[in-house]
Design a protein that fits this description.
Elements: E1 5-6, H1 16-25, H2 44-61, E2 67-72, H3 75-87, E3 92-97, H4 100-110, E4 114-120, H5 133-140, E5 147-150, E6 152-153, E7 158-159, E8 171-174, E9 191-195, E10 206-211, H6 212-215, H7 231-236, H8 246-261, H9 264-285, E11 290-291, E12 302-306, H10 310-322, E13 325-326, E14 337-340, H11 347-363
Parallel strand pairs: 1-13, 3-4, 3-5, 5-8, 8-9
Antiparallel strand pairs: 2-10, 6-7, 9-10, 11-12, 12-14
The structure holds 4'-deoxy-4'-aminopyridoxal-5'-phosphate.
4'-deoxy-4'-aminopyridoxal-5'-phosphate (PMP) is lined by residues 10, 75-77, 101, 150, 154, 174, 176-177, 195.
């Protein structure tokens, strides 16, 4: 059966070899006589799976021992609450509102303390990453518990290409849609987190990487923080305060191994750069398609664009579907078109999309 070119924003394309391996192992995992789906999370076989997933991720990102790695549930969204509950010790934090998910995180932060908007690009419909000078100045005052950013804005197709310098104020980042697309300097962050369903695996796993000293004293709001969200408890229990998403973590581990076997994150970033360059070049060379993000803020993961009007956008989506191209409808908040070109989306798929764009444009005369 032919597989489509899948440009979905998440859940998104997974590496085919990972799917095949999981298929092979589904009925009887490594001679255990059972599927990972049926296996106790406390079993020796499962312990090896989760430990290998963490160890591989640590190698890939060169995560220092002073950081804890957690595999949690509740999506990236639950961490919008988990972060203030754990870290807003003086009840004052700063948020950069660069898109809808950053805004949702800020709103959640407002429930627990003084969540200041340090910069926003909402006035221009989140078409860019805001200027960071004011953010850095505010961070330098030293009275914020953290500065929060969403590093890649999945809906609007923008990305931080440099991180704000927050001096000693911990930087907290939602990296959901750029996680594992290239190397990260972990020590720049106090905490980073990602829903897995883009580059890391299936939906239902959230990876949290947190500097240990930030959680060592327990949650800032121990009185009201649900135990599940208590990052110290989760770290002490090895992400097993309760039953984790066993199968999801197993698949993430396979994706981490795949990245390692395909030469790691530097090589991954090079391939992603080549894919993004081809797609943006095709958009920029076209008289019909146009990019919607400010060129300086363009995302390497989610490429947002449109045609001359909504009707033509729809016609292009239908034209592409006939050619085996799926998932290019823009998010309802942004409209237009979006191609998510995560790690498992091949250059071949991006080539198919760009060829389709050129043919569509030519067909209109
Ligand atoms: N942050 C970003 C950047 C996202 O792209 C998404 C979802 N696509 C979320 C947060 C919300 O993630 P989840 O659905 O896992 O809660």
């Amino acid at each position: 059966m032919a597989r489509v070119h899948n440009f979905s924003a998440g859940p998104a394309a997974l590496p085919q070899c990972v799917l095949r391996e999981a298929q092979d192992e589904l009925f009887d995992y490594a001679g255990t006589g059972m599927s990972v789906l049926e296996m106790s999370h406390r079993s020796e076989a499962y312990r090896a799976i989760i430990e290998d997933a963490e160890a591989t991720l640590r190698r890939l990102l060169d995560i220092p021992p002073s950081y804890r790695v957690l595999f949690l549930q509740g999506g990236a969204t639950l961490q919008f609450a988990g972060i203030p509950l754990n870290l807003m010790r003086r009840r004052r934090a700063g948020y950069v509102v660069s898109g809808n998910f950053a805004k949702l995180a800020w709103r959640e932060g407002c429930k627990y303390g003084d969540a200041e908007v340090l910069a926003s690009s909402e006035a221009s419909n989140f078409d860019r990453i805001p200027e960071l000078g004011a953010v850095e100045n505010r961070a330098a005052s030293g009275d914020l518990d953290y500065v929060y950013i969403c590093q890649n804005n999945t809906i609007f197709g923008t990305q931080f290409h440099t991180l704000p310098d927050c001096t000693d104020t911990p930087l907290i980042a939602d990296v959901s849609s750029c996680f594992l697309s290239g190397p990260l300097d972990i020590e720049r962050y106090g905490l980073l987190f990602a829903g897995a369903q883009k580059n890391a695996g299936p939906a239902g796993v959230t990876v949290v990487i947190v500097r240990e000293d930030l959680i060592a004293n327990g949650p800032a709001r121990a009185d009201i923080c649900p135990t599940y969200l208590d990052l110290r408890v989760q770290a002490e229990k090895g992400s097993m305060y309760n039953t984790p998403n066993t199968f999801g973590i197993y698949l993430c581990g396979k994706v981490f191994r795949w990245i390692e076997q395909t030469d790691g994150l530097v090589a991954m970033a090079q391939r992603n750069r080549a894919k993004a360059d081809l797609l943006y070049r095709t958009i920029d060379d076209s008289d019909l398609f146009q990019g919607t993000a400010d060129p300086k803020s363009r995302s390497m993961s989610n490429v947002t664009f449109r045609t001359c009007d909504a009707e033509t956008d729809e016609a292009f989506i239908a034209y592409a579907r006939e050619r085996g191209i799926e998932g290019i409808k823009g998010h309802r908040m942004a409209g237009g078109l979006r191609a998510s070109i995560y790690n498992a989306v091949t250059m071949d798929s991006v080539g198919a999309l760009t060829a389709c764009m050129r043919e569509f444009e030519a067909s209109r005369g």
